[in-house]
Structures are given as structure tokens and as C-alpha cells.
Predict the structure.
Amino acid sequence: MSQLGTEAAPLRVAVVGAGPSGFYATEALLKSEIAAQVDLIERLPSPYGLVRSGVAPDHPKLKQSIEVYKKVAALEGFRFFGNVTVGKDVMPQELRDIYHAVIYTCGAETDRRLGIEGEDLAGSHTATEFVGWYNGHPDYRNREFDFSHETAVIIGQGNVAADVARILSKSVDELKHTDISQHALDALAESQIKTIAVVGRRGPAQAKFTTKELREFLELENCQAAIASEELALNEASQTEVADKKAGVVAAKNMAIFEKMAEDAEQSKVRTCRMMFCRSPIRIEGNGRIERVVLERNELSGEPFSQRASGTGETETLECGLLFRSIGYRGVPIEGVPFHDSWGVFPNQEGRITDGPDGAVVPGIYTAGWIKRGPSGIIGTNRACAVQTVESLMGDLSNLPADRAGTDALAKLLQERGVRSIDFPEWQRIDAEEVSRGEPKGKPREKFTRREEMLQILG
Ligand code: NAP
């Protein structure tokens, strides 16, 4: 038997999930010293995960990483299996029988929950739904958002909350030449929203916005960013955080922007985006649909950089017709792969999936990206994360099973099951069609938002 990783016996790997981590893991494998073949399996017909359906349409620069992924797809040994769901069309155990190794890079597909009364009332949505909807993700195409109300509330102060607030704040003119889906643009054109409240459970020094994203709120055509100046008073520990020249650098820059928001009082803009701090929602109320959210004032305690919010008992009510929970994503389990329920990740040691948080390594299965480490960091963070996983895999080469059929065996199995998988040239045809649909509108593309539409293009 030839040695694994040679031309005679290439390493055959299935990577599950074609978002950034999936492409970075594929790249690390195909550019390694050894001979490898990688089948990138994706449940949607389209690749690129959150770069396509998470990154905000008005942030086109962040989508430039797609150019890198296209180069990965052109590497020898790459094959794309779009429109294939692991856990439904093919089972994890089957992948282990077909490939020497499987790397799960399936991201964090759902949201954390607040766990409060009224969370599921009509008009109370997750950020995931809204982001997926305006970005044309097929799972969220049929969601409906009622923009006929004057006030929308966003819970959470991370970059996803910033995206949601910005899309609600912008005019149609500011969005119409982006790749925002047409159905979303049409619905937002009718929006009556005047106030967008972005509510954080901790203070301004702890907000998770990155400075670049926060600064954009000062530049909106139609929307005034506002803060009541008393909201910016910092306790001693927060002052220490902001003064820290290393760990507090983002907080200090953010504070300067918040102060600018508190100073600017121009009221001539159509909308206001109001930052509110040290408040947690404790109840969402309404008769059949959301009418208001009850917020409890918090106080912070603890050491600098590990301060926690706790309720003071003082409450206030915010009338609103729309609410978005943007408090972080969470991975979803795949039957047959160990899952850490409270962390929402696949438990692992440096990318090797383990049988529970402190369990033994399960041979042959690996993970990278948000499903490995939780939903944090920027797109590029996933490259280092995927490289670490591939290094772990390379270190295990001598322990991997010897003979595995790889690509042909998966293709045969899918064909037997009547699964219509999509390869990369087919995706490129869909891609070209999207681009040409966008041209007359001056948009980079008009996405297909339904699986059937994409399959129809292919005939
Ligand atoms: P995030 O940055 O972790 O922010 C989550 C927010 O929710 C925080 O303000 C957090 O407050 C709050 N929160 C959590 N649990 C809560 C609860 N029970 N009640 C009230 N508030 C709660 O998550 P994200 O915004 O979903 O972003 C995920 C990752 O994607 C981040 O790394 C982000 O930077 C990245 N991203 C980047 C961009 C970009 O570069 N433009 C765009 C979008 C996303 P605490 O701080 O108190 O926990």
C-alpha cells in the first residue's frame, strides 16, 4: 500500500460547509506538501457562507475575500458538491467511510436566545432572520418584517447589531446599488421607522462594535446617531479599561465616537439611531404581536475587562413595533457528530473533534471556524483557525485509515439517492446569471433567493 499523501495515494478529505473556514481549510490542504483531494460539501447551491449571506450589502470590500476562494476552487484536487446536506443526503458515518478525514466548517447557523417572556411574539425577530432575508438567503426568503411602525429596537451591541441598525437606518438611495435583494429593498422602501434603539446590557466601554463600523453611524445621510450624554458616564473599572493603552484601545476610540454622537444634536434627519447602555430586556409585551419591551437598568461590577451586568430592579418601557435580538450566533448539531450543547460548538482539541468537552479524540473528524471556536473574530480569523486544524490533521496522517474511495464514491452515492448536487462550473453559471441580472439596476448582482431558481438556470 502506497503511503498516504503521495500521488499514488492522495489524502482524500471532505470539508463540510463552504464558508470562509471551509475554503481556508481546503486551501491549507491543497497547498500543503502532500498530494490531497478535497471535496467541499455545502447544503446551499451557492458557496461562500456568511460572506455571501451574512456580510452586509453596503460592505462590498468585505466580500473581496471571494476572489481568494475562487482561486482555491481553481486548485488541482478541488471539487464542489453544492446542494448537499450532511445529516440528510449523506450521513457523517458515510463520509467517514468514504474519506480519510472529514473537516466540519459549518459555522454557527442559529442565534442565542434571551430566554424572556414574549421573545417569540410576532414582530420579535432574530438578527439571523433579518440578515439572511436582506441578503437573499433561501432559508429566510419568505420571512416578513413589518416596517409600518415608528420604533425598532435592537438588543445587543456587536457588529451584527450595527449591520441591522444601519440597514434599517439607510435610505433606498443609499442601498439600491448594493447587492441587497430586491424583495428587501422594496419592503424597506415603505419603511415608516423613525427611531432605532440599539440596547446594550453593559456600558459604552464594553460595546463590541469595531470602531470602523461604529463610525459609519456618523456618516448616514438619513439618520442621526444619538446618545443621551449621561449614558457615557463611566464607573472606575470602565475608566481603567478605556485608559489601558493596549487592551482598551478599541473602547477608547469607540468612546470618542459615542461622545460625538452625544454632542451632535442635528434633528433635521428623517431617522434617529439611539444608543442605549446598561439595560437588559426582561419582557416583551403585546397583544398577539410586540407592542413594547420592558428594560431593566443594569449596574456593572467586577474587575476591569471582566465586568458583568446585573439588574437594579429599576425598569422602563420602550414602545416599539419591531425588535431584533442580536446577541450572538450559535452552532447547530449534526446527528452523529459530538456537540457541546451549552457552548453551541463541536468540542475539540486544536481542531480534532472530541467525544464531549473533556472527552477522547474521535479519529478522523475535525472542525474549524465558528463551529470550532464559537462566533467571534473577523473573516480572516478563520484562516489561522483552519490552518491550525489542518496542521492537526497532518500530524495524524499515519493514524488515518488506509483506503478510502473519495470523490467518486460520494458522487455515486448521491446519484443513487437522486440528490442533484451542483459542481463549481455549474455554480459559476449561476453566478454569471446573477451578475447579469444586476447590471441593468446598477447592482453588482441580483441574487437568486430560491434553490429552485438556481437549479432552473442549470436546466
Ligand atoms: P458579538 O460581537 O459577540 O456581540 C453580541 C452582543 O450581544 C454583545 O453586545 C453582547 O453583550 C450582547 N449579548 C449577549 N448575550 C446577551 C444577553 N443575554 N442579553 C443582552 N445582550 C446580550 O456578536 P455578533 O454581533 O453576533 O458578531 C459575531 C462576530 O461577527 C463578531 O466577531 C463580529 O465582530 C463579527 N462581525 C463582523 C462584522 C464586520 O467586520 N463588519 C460584521 C458582522 C459581524 P456582552 O458584551 O455583554 O456579552
Remarks:
- The CA atoms of residues 23 and 69 lie 6 Å apart.
